[in-house]
Amino acid sequence: MTDQYVPFVFIKKTVALQRLGDAVRGGYRWYVTGSLPQSKISTFCEKQSARYDLSWSPVRTRAARKSGKAVFRLILLRQDREPDVIHWWLLRTEGEMSSEAGREKWRNAHRDRIFFQGYELVRTTKSGADHAVWTWRMPPDAERELRERVILLIRQKRDRELQELIDGVWRAPGFSGVRDQVKKVRTLLVREWKRSRAEGEAMPAVPERIGYLRRLPSLGQPLTEILGGKVRQRAVRKSKVE
Description:
By secondary structure, the chain is of the alpha+beta class. It has helices at about 15-25, 40-50, 60-65, 100, 140-155, 160-170, 175-195, 225, and strands at about 10, 30-35, 70-75, 85-90, 105-110, 115, 120-125, 135, 220, 235. Helix 5 (about 140-155) runs parallel beside helix 7. The longest helix is centred in the C-terminal third of the chain and has 21 residues, at about 175-195. The chain is elongated.
């Protein structure tokens, strides 16, 4: 790694998803994404930094955007469950860019949604709201499959599996889009149980509270520490998306 740019690696999926939402909301609407073995990530980051000036300060980034130039950001994630893999998202704003940057197969997050491990980033307007917001949710196909499974388990009286499903759904990250889906699952559970089961038959425990996701600290560490074997949880202050 060069002295000018030391990549920061998030170590919690929910934090990385939150920061991706921040970036897209802040104008970084174009993206490419992938994953690499940890052994190859250092070379990859050096190349991206050289191509896209990832070491720019917030002041210089703001000035570049004001002058009509595209600016770039790299988000990295390493999870305990797959410690030898690092996921990456390279994002950019609208604006003038080099011919090399123009050769990337950029996707537009407004049309081609960012998807990661069961969740998609969407822009939606809630009932009664006066503006759209960015949030994460389960894709429609996954939500439909979940609802169908709830109905199946209730009708087949597979209550232990139903309880396991309920516990898993209620542990989902509390983004507003996910919360809305979990509320609908709860409504479906109660309605289908009353329809399919005998009166007085006890329904599996359903948590009263649906988790609400607050602003999370940037848990992670510099890539140099991870590559040096010093993997530990640490929160650092990160600047706002410029």
